[in-house]
Fold:
Amino acid sequence: VLPPVKELYDSVVWASGGHSAAAGHGNLLHENYPEYMERLAKDVFHSVGLDLIGRNNAMGGMDTVPEVAMCLEAKMGLDADIISWDSGMTEGGHPYKLPLYANRIGGSSHRNRPIFAGIQMCGNEQVRKIQSLKELQEWGLTTLYFPCTTQTAMHDSYPDMSALSGEQAEQVAPYAAYFRCKDMIEDGEPRCKDMKYNTTICPNRFGMASWHPGWKWHANVGHAMALFMVDSLVEALEDLTFAKANKVTGETYDPRKLFEILKGQDDKDYQTFKESALELPTNLYELMPQEPFANKNNEEGYVVDPALKPWILARAPSICHSAFLPSQSRYLGLFDGRLNRGAKTMEETKMEEGITFQALKELLQGENAPPVAHNEDQARPMKLVQDGNLHVNGKNEDGSDCGHPVLYDFKDWMSSTNKDGWTFVKFPNQAELEYYKQPRQDYKPRGFIMMCFLRCDWGKCPAGEINLETFDKLDVRLNGIRVVDKQLVGSDCAFLRHERGLSFDADENGQYELKLRVGLWDNEQPDVLSFVRITTLVVV
Structure:
């Protein structure tokens, strides 16, 4: 019997990020590769007292930076052991994005010091992406990636359905049948294209597009992840069984000593990574060559605020108040100001779901509309508004509701309108402050506040929407200090600025109160409801 170690570790969590393809759009709710991995390997981990969790935190239409990268603890969870990103539909032409995302994993004081794993890193830029992971490893961050050659070999191993007779095709296992037709994956004849999606239930679903992979592709990646996890577990058990701390010399220790040695190596790597912040580029143009973190104020180019050092963007701890789903902060109830530790998925949580935008408009424009808050001291709380797809289930062939949700990811937001007058939100709320400060009691925010707005689908914003392009139509106060400008971060987020700079003082509790009043979207159309859709507020 192995002696117990001082600390108890009872779960292994792989939290996966990415675009709509990684989220599983077009497939049934649980047909995505993190969940395939969990189902395939869960019993093996249970046999040694560990709970394997495959957490699908991908979101359609989202990028690695800045919003997701700055909010990894809130989105992926403080218990994440491996955090991955699927580059299959993102990162092209932007060499800074993946390294910045990985830097946030390794350098933002994450409690578990998670591993970074790259998935779908194929294509023209795979050499650059792999090289960036190797550099991060040299700095002390553990990185993994799914080799493109391995993925191609796995695809080539599937039977070519075009070469099989009808009788032979019937003998092929469901996971392999009609996955490959000649050199095409989930496409071509006979029936590979038609059999791409599982249509046993809800055959008419959101996202069943040619550019989204089907359930067998997700199962393929999930199997590879499960095999890797089981191999890693077996290797760890072998080391514990033989208590071999040094495979070269054969020197042996008991498991507690082995744990101390491995923990010491991990501490050393972590310290090396933290100190490597000095190796980051000092010029933000080098870190963000395509989309500088800056305001374009003249034809000569961009001006970057000197307070925004690269290490602050890449490594500084942050706390997020974010409405997006999937998000562990939403599942745990932290966004609502409480903590529900038992919830791991949307089905289990009792989180506040908010109201639909249509219901909000009817409330504000109806006969019983609440009075407009004309003064700051009358400000009322911002409302949580659901993404329009939140309660959209799959459809039957006749278009009727099939009764099954088919999406995880919803772009919920915090709303303020011109019919509200002054609104407010306090962040981090007490639950968020206590939960996220727990692993780093010495954390003191630098006072940089980033506000993110909902990205309009395909660049087409609805009438009445006010965002970063029309920021001057907003009246914003932060702990009573007037916000006079912004420092753009990509296209959808910005650091707020007051007259003397970017840093705002927190109150005595370490919190910020944002008060906001929305002006008219169009002075010539005063009857059009003006509104903002704020998705995330970040304290750095």
